[in-house]
Amino acid sequence: MHYTLCDLIADLTQNAVEAASSHIRVEFTESDDKLTVYIRDNGKGMDGELLKKVRDPFYTDGIKHPNRKIGMGIPFLIQTTADTGGNWKIDSVPGKGTVVYMCFDLSNIDTPPVGDVCRLFRQLLIFPGSYELEIVRTKHTKDCSLNYTLLRSELSDALGKMETAADLALLDEFLQSQENG
Ligand SMILES: Nc1ncnc2c1ncn2[C@@H]1O[C@H](COP(=O)(O)OP(=O)(O)OP(=O)(O)O)[C@@H](O)[C@H]1O
Ligand SMILES: [Mg+2]
After folding, report:
1. Which of the two ends of the chain, N or C, has the fewest CB atoms closer than 10 A to its terminal CB?
2. Which residues, at least 6 apart from 28, have a Cβ–Cβ distance to it below 8 Å?
3. Ligand 1 neighbourhood includes 24 CB (under 6 angstroms)
């Protein structure tokens, strides 16, 4: 299976959408040897007991995938960071929301590749639902310096509902232009 850090971040942000959040903020900060990501949502949150259970790959809420008994987002985060010298933390308050923090050592040979950032941002912007999404992208490496913010509501005002092939082509072009600096 090809699994990139972007795939993992897409899974964890999808959890925030599925938790009925109306506002989600993803901070994606990259340097030559480190990727730090915060996913903050104001969704339904998790209590202490659920937070313990979700570490187990054999736990899922039983609603999302009625025929599947495993949930992989959080267990993958835990395993990937444990195997590669990274770090993670989840803070959650029932009824208020959740903050998922993760940090990856990009110089560790076992850390999966970052993956395609434009594809990730596109994916995060087009999950079904009416949530606001703020993406704060920062990259400071020896070859590149980037700092931009994307707001889902502004993009859908400018690009339509991001549903048709034409809207998505415009979105891809815009995201690529942001990444090219
Ligand atoms: N941001 C969040 N807010 C509220 N609950 C969450 C959040 N993230 C995860 N959870 C809870 O943790 C459970 C496990 O999440 P995980 O991503 O590991 O698996 P899943 O989402 O159930 O399945 P999969 O990711 O494979 O679709 C979710 O079913 C949900 O109950
Ligand atoms: Mg999930």
Report:
1. N
2. 9, 35, 37, 117, 135, 136, 137, 138
3. no
Residue 91, SS3 per DSSP: strand
Count of domains observed in the chain:
1
Q: Cα 121 to chain center, whole Å?
A: 8
Q: Residue 49 belongs to what domain range?
A: 5-179
Name the H helices within 35-129.
48-53, 73-84, 117-125
Token couple for 180: 């090219």
The residue nearest atom 9 of ligand 1, judged by CA position, is 15
pLDDT tens, per residue, the chain with 181 residues? 458 999 999 999 999 999 999 999 999 999 999 999 999 999 999 999 999 888 877 777 777 776 665 667 899 999 999 999 999 999 999 999 999 999 999 999 999 999 999 999 999 999 999 999 999 999 999 999 999 999 999 999 988 788 889 899 999 999 999 999 8
Contact 74 CB / ligand 1 (< 6 Å): yes
